[in-house]
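G., before I forget:
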Amino acid sequence: MSTKNGPEIPSSEVTPKWLYLNRRKFLAGALGVTAGALAGRTLRELAWPSQKVMAGTKLNVAGKSPFSTTEEVTPYDDVTHYNNFYEFGTAKEDPAKNATHFRTSPWNVKVTGLVEKPRTFSLEELMQLAPLEERIYRHRCVEAWSIVVPWIGYSFNVLLKEVSPQPKAKFVAFESYYSSSQMPLARYGGINFPYVEGLRLDEAMHPLALLCFGMYGETLPNQDGAPVRMVLPWKYGFKSIKSLVQIKLVEKQPDTTWNLSSSSEYGFYSNVNPHVDHPRWSQAKERRLGEFFRRATLMFNGYDQVAPLYAGMDLKKYY
Amino acid sequence: MRKILRSKWIKLTVFVLCLVPLGQLAWRALHHHLTANPIEYITHQTGDWTLIFVVTTLAVTPARKLLQLPELIRFRRMLGLFAFFYGLLHFSTWIGLDKFFDWTEMLHDVRKRPFITVGFTGFALMIPLALTSTAGWIRRLGGKRWLALHRLIYVTGIAGVVHYYWLVKSDVRKPLFYGALVALLLALRVGFWLAGRRGKPAGKALEPKLTTAETA
């Protein structure tokens, strides 16, 4: 998408805050060595070494997207150190620590099932299918917290059109990468792997559904689902599958991981809905990371344009 | 060992050690190291420490008997009060920081959400125990009744574990770990009780316990 109001700097070209902070930390460290007077700061750094930040490769972004929110973007450090990625441990800070050596190259994504042109794409091929856009989306976790992330990718329907779904295809089934040797902690997660997810075909065709390769101007960090993931901003976060390796078009509604784990708590649709509580907690409000007071959760996470997809459906029943 | 346990300074040392988790939280708060979701972090930390102190308190009597170290009783009240203290911090974090004193929402949660109902019960049951923890109250209630009342801590232990188990999404390792500890400590008590019944005529078994409670 091109910009309407003349050239604007995509956030990818602005020095990311963490990088600039890191430079400051480096300077402070250098000063700390030469001048013991800064001992207070250095001691603190010793006690808690600055969190490891994995700089990805810069991505060229075509421009801003009309789908982007103007809300304040959540700091990079929070989005990279507060993750649910059970393959790398169940505590929020685990994936940042344990995904460091995850091998994401070479990477292939197999598109199969009820399509006219089944094909296995290399990551590079996949990234060439359409110009990459930056989309600043709200992201609402089923655990009642939320973040705002500048993702990079293109609408998933580009890929679907490339492989031409057959008329019989009604659903899209997604599968994550899984390797017990690369992900030894997964077996303590309490859910089955590989992680699987699914969408109705019309949901997957919606332009908001993003095939995502990066964030904050760079390729995805491992703990955020490198090298390629889905982002479905109107659904709870767990629907947005990470480290995607297979896409299969099918006739029947596919299994989804959390639904298999606890079907009364996690439905197939799992649209953000403040009126349908999780059996164990309310979904009426959420805590935006970085904010003290909880804010009201919006229907479809504020993405009302998806409402026609669910016209006539009882969303209390199809939660 | 006994000498150390009897010394004047050991109680102060244990007291200070019990404050370390709080100190760590305060330190992290001052240095902005409470993770991306500070309120959740504080809630989880204080909850964890409440359970750790409940388990430790429950461990005093079995440890005293098995290790034949009656001196350990000196620490039971303090540990129990710290369990209450961290439980109070946990509860206050929830009501103050998380719900921001929205009492109606809180009551709604207590009624509607089983994990909160059971957690709240576990905490509420510690209130009478904390209030009657003094020597004066042991005297006023009489040792036998005081002991009976303070067995409520068993319910708190179980409630705490269930609260945790119902709260987690799928990784149940930690709640199961605490659950195993509480189960073991309660089973040991049943064991002692059975052994006591077999060994001594009825009524006598309580006697040594009473005196230790008095001196606690």
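The longest helix of chain A spans residues 17-34. DSSP finds eight helices and twelve strands in chain A.

More on Monday.
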